[in-house]
Amino acid sequence: MAKAHGVPAKVDAIKLSEEGAKKVMNAAIGLAVVGVVLGAAGYFTDAHRFAFSYLTGFLWLTTIALGGLFFVIIQHLTKAGWSVAPRRHMEWISGALPACAALFLPIVLFAHDIWHHWMGPEAAHDEILQKKAGYLNPSFFYIRAAIYFAIWIGLALWFAARSAEQDETGNQKLTVKMQNMAPPAVLLFGLSITFAGFDWLMSLDPHWYSTIFGVYVFAGAAVSSLSVLALVNIKLQQEGLLQKVSNVEHRHDIGKLLFGFIVFWAYIGFSQFILIWYANIPEETLFYKHRWEGSWKVVSMTLLIGHFVLPFLVLLSRHAKRHFTVLAGASVWMLVMHYVDLYWLVMPTLDHHGAHFSWIDLAGLLAPVGVGALLIALRATRGHLYPLKDPRLAEAAAVENL
């Protein structure tokens, strides 16, 4: 049997089988159809609420894809050897970014409903918003969005194309080229996700501000993308497709990263809260006041316990990170909590008196997620399951957690 840098082809499948690829595509197509139909129903039932629900679902998908892009960049930046196979899976996930760009178009139509504070007529009578008009105006807002997507899609496609090219040619200079691209890429990524967080989330309440907010958005992106990665990794391992380049040791490493970023998310969230609480400036504290009124208090406490306390306790042990069921369950839970986090950020703008979950919110989630899942499925079924000729493939197969 042929070998790829010491990894026997008979041990690790190169691609999904025809039957496996068909199942993945059918599931993705089904989800996309259900999402689009449900989304249309939600829009025609209550267009105003659907606008906010759609923004929440769009951000859920986009932050997951951005987390995937960050993972790809950071593995090249650090010249990591353990993550050869997971890096390919994150290339699939970041491949949803072109779909995210297309899915932003409905938001353009909803924009005046969503960001009505500074896009609407009341901004002309607000002294603070008039001073921010040089930044918070529709034309510049859309230009910035176009720049963000150009950066993200350009980086995602560039790294994926070099990786795929290496599969065919085995040219090790491509690894060096990707490593050299990583430093400017991480700078562009950091700036773009920060300003996107300011634009799409923080400006929902244009009087409120937080200098750490971009890092908070990034933390959520990292946690959610690692959760998806863990589920992909577990599924491929359980199907027996990957045994050498992705085994229990790699699952353990992914679990450790997920655990670490759960703690990081809590640290950033607490840092933001404690600084605002201590300063006690009215225009800053209003953000938390709106999320402590009525049933929003329940959502806030759910976020504290569900996004940090419970997963921290569950994933603290070595055994949990290596166990199929525990890690998979924790990953699904964190994806739900990431949605709750975004819901907590977006929906109080619609009604800060209390949280009222509706089927329209589910429609707003499934509409973008179905389309994004279809694009990810196309990448997964047409490409190789891991970088076949990466120079660190043998190193990845030999990784061991002590």
From TrEMBL:
<feature type="transmembrane region" description="Helical">
    <location>
        <begin position="208"/>
        <end position="236"/>
    </location>
</feature>
<feature type="transmembrane region" description="Helical">
    <location>
        <begin position="141"/>
        <end position="161"/>
    </location>
</feature>
<feature type="transmembrane region" description="Helical">
    <location>
        <begin position="298"/>
        <end position="317"/>
    </location>
</feature>
<keyword id="KW-0812">Transmembrane</keyword>
<feature type="transmembrane region" description="Helical">
    <location>
        <begin position="357"/>
        <end position="378"/>
    </location>
</feature>
<feature type="transmembrane region" description="Helical">
    <location>
        <begin position="257"/>
        <end position="278"/>
    </location>
</feature>
<feature type="transmembrane region" description="Helical">
    <location>
        <begin position="182"/>
        <end position="202"/>
    </location>
</feature>
<protein>
    <recommendedName>
        <fullName>Quinol:cytochrome C oxidoreductase</fullName>
    </recommendedName>
</protein>
<feature type="transmembrane region" description="Helical">
    <location>
        <begin position="24"/>
        <end position="45"/>
    </location>
</feature>
<keyword id="KW-1133">Transmembrane helix</keyword>
<feature type="transmembrane region" description="Helical">
    <location>
        <begin position="95"/>
        <end position="115"/>
    </location>
</feature>
<keyword id="KW-0472">Membrane</keyword>
<feature type="transmembrane region" description="Helical">
    <location>
        <begin position="324"/>
        <end position="345"/>
    </location>
</feature>
<feature type="transmembrane region" description="Helical">
    <location>
        <begin position="51"/>
        <end position="74"/>
    </location>
</feature>
